[in-house]
Predict the structure of UPF0056 membrane protein.
Amino acid sequence: MSELLATFIFFFAVIDPIGTVPVFISVTNHYEEKVKRKIAFQATFVSALILIFFVVAGELVLNAINIPLSAFQIAGGIILFLFALTMIFGESKPEEELKMAGNANETAIFPLAVPSIASPGAILAAVLMTENNRYNLFEQVQTSLMILAVLLVVLVLMLLATWVHRFIGNGGASIVSRVMGMILAAMAVSNVLAGIKDYFAI
């Protein structure tokens, strides 16, 4: 149970559901409630397809181009760490992606599904947390279910976006993003150390 909770928290930090709320509000500002709900469901569905695809095929793609997963784990950990630093010290997720939304077509695909929900960090995490040599099929299914659980949280928050944003405000979303960034940074360092250990054990 504790491992499932840790996996859920990990993907919660990477995907950052609360940080998605201001982005959703911005890109759906001129739509009716019915259209907003449709966009929320579509964005969640597309994000789920992307992340589950990388759970299933991510490692196969790496093997096809002869990249050891340990090297990908180290690179992924470094990228996740840099991503976490931008959440902590730089512009938070809502601030950064609201700028994208201002110049983009108001669609569920961009910037909602990508890069807000199925972010590069989330894609890397999906591959690293389902490595065939480290996790059996049952554990990979559990990880996939935790990803879907986080996406369910994303969907619920988008459906309740107006109320949530009124409650926490832009400042609250920014604070949550930075806290999630700290958690993600620690997990990224752990991934790098594990990757280095695996690489030199080969």
